[in-house]
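Lab channel / #folding
Pinned by the channel admin:
"Please post every new chain as: sequence first, then the structure tokens as a reply. Keep commentary short and put observations after the output so the thread stays searchable."

First post following the new format, from NK:
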Amino acid sequence: MNTVLYIKANPKPDDVSRTFRIANQFIEAYKLKNRDDNIVTLDLYKEGINFLSPQDVKKHVAKPGEGKDDPVLKYAYQFLAADKYVFAEPLWNLGVPAILKAYIDYICVTNITFKYTANGPVGLCQGKKAVNITARGGEYSTGPNAAWELGDKYLKTILGFLGITDYTTIAANSLDIVGVDTETIISKAISDARRIAETF
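Reply from TO:
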């Protein structure tokens, strides 16, 4: 049995968020194929993730197994314990929502999710897999604006730093372009999400 950590980073409710419309369909399709797996939903806004305080930063060099009940370090241990990750967030101002970056700061803890060696940092989350589901107002997957997309690129890079290299992106682009049929774009993304979920 695998544990899937479903990380939601959008203040909008599920029925309003275009990102969640797609991501929830991914989760439903995944459940149909993996009925015994444990899916843990972590809504960052409901969780109340804050920016790290000076005291919190001091905890970020932990001894292995230390602080599992700590209100900050518990997120790193939860992340390490999962086998698969589903991220769901919109592209905001060319990057991820600040609350998702704050969460990344919570989970990147030395000796829990990565460590330093004589040859540099090594991720401790190897052998796991992730999918990122994102909705974007413009076209950022291809064309000249692709270079401006710093949300999915950042997430892929930081997860690679933690040792997670099996990474898939599901993106719905151009949702705020005037005259575009947004429902067709979302429907295509949902179809892609359900297909990918079957083998995730």
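NK: Strands lie at 3-8, 38-43, 84-90, 114-117, 120-123, 129-135, 166-172.
TO: also worth noting, The chain has a mean pLDDT of 95.
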